[in-house]
Amino acid sequence: MSIAAYIKIIGRGKEGARSLGVDESRDLFEQVLDHKVTDLEIGAFCLAMRIKSESTEELDGFVQASHARCMDLSMAAQAASKGIVVLPSYNGARKLPNLTALLAVELARQGLSVLVHGPSKDPGRVTTAQVFEAAGLPIVKDAAALHAAWQAGQAAFMDIADLCPPMDRLLAVRWTIGLRTPAHSVAKLLDPFAANPSSGVKSIRVVNHTHPEYAIAMAEFIQHIQATAMLMRGTEGEPVADARRQPKCDVYLRGVRVNDLCLTPEEGVLTSLPELPTSHSAADTAAYIEAVQAGRQAIPAAIQAQANALVQALARGA
């Protein structure tokens, strides 16, 4: 098969290209994920989308194709009595401590089932998987292990290579072409539980962005597919609030923004800073998380507020 006809549509530059519909996008991404096309075509697709950027309909099709290739986690959902929070973790820490695991631990402490998914390693960055490992938190490979972690009241991490192997392969194209690909945007939108509503479980995904234009695109996507999600500017691209200053967090229930659940950004000059790890290493971050769990350190107010908003969203019948 060939995706040349699709590339011809999306590859005419930022001004000349036009967007694909949902069905076309799903077909295109299915062929890319299943590697039914050549490496040259996959590279051309990635570069064309990098220049054009994804439309709402294209993201919808791409996410549908990806969800269809995710591991079936419905067995694990049986242990999620109060709802599930999905934290896509794809950036890691470059300068600041990666506190995604701290958010996950706090949500689990409040009785929610938490799945963090992402890559185990990222050159030059500290991944959430590395923090989980250093803190002795569960890293799971299948639905049974996830179910066991949730029954024990623990948050769990799953490598994208286990959750969705085709997505992992597409993410790896970045290391060949030197640029992030549409896979990065799509992976940060994955909620395998929302894709399987027959399980009857409530879930909410945290969708984070780093650039203002992505905030608009992601909000349109959430509204388009009527998703339940928290949209925010993450810390270095991670789905966790900046511990130093409360960021804006918009909460959507079934695609509708709920004003009283949203968090207002903190403005002005900071008068104080919370105590944070002395470095962004996995070991120091894990030690800090353990100190918070033991009550020796206070959880940063911004992360506590984010956790509370997620708990309230699920309690509202998300």
In short:
With 318 residues, the chain is α/β, with parallel strands linked by helices.
Please describe the topology of this protein.
Blueprint: H1 4-10, H2 13-16, H3 22-33, H4 39-52, H5 56-67, H6 74-77, E1 84-88, H7 100-109, E2 113-118, H8 128-135, E3 139-140, H9 143-151, E4 156-159, H10 160-163, H11 165-171, H12 174-177, H13 182-187, E5 203-209, H14 212-224, E6 229-233, E7 249-253, E8 256-257, H15 282-293, H16 301-315
Parallel strand pairs: 1-2, 1-5, 2-4, 3-4, 5-6
Antiparallel strand pairs: 6-7, 7-8
How would you characterize the overall build of this protein?
By secondary structure, the protein is α/β, with parallel strands linked by helices. It has two domains: 4-67, Transferase, Pyrimidine Nucleoside Phosphorylase, Chain A, domain 3 (Up-down Bundle), CATH 1.20.970.10; 74-162 and 170-315, Nucleoside phosphorylase/phosphoribosyltransferase catalytic domain (Pyrimidine Nucleoside Phosphorylase, Chain A, domain 2). It is 44% helix and 11% strand. It has 16 helices and eight strands. It has helices at 4-10, 13-16, 22-33, 39-52, 56-67, 74-77, 100-109, 128-135, 143-151, 160-163, 165-171, 174-177, 182-187, 212-224, 282-293, 301-315, and strands at 84-88, 113-118, 139-140, 156-159, 203-209, 229-233, 249-253, 256-257. The protein has an eight-stranded mixed β-sheet with strand order 3-4-2-1-5-6-7-8, with helices on both faces. Strand 3 (139-140), helix 9 (143-151) and strand 4 form a beta-alpha-beta unit. Helix 5 crosses helix 14 (212-224). The longest helix is centred in the last third of the chain and has 15 residues, at 301-315. The chain is globular. The termini are far apart.
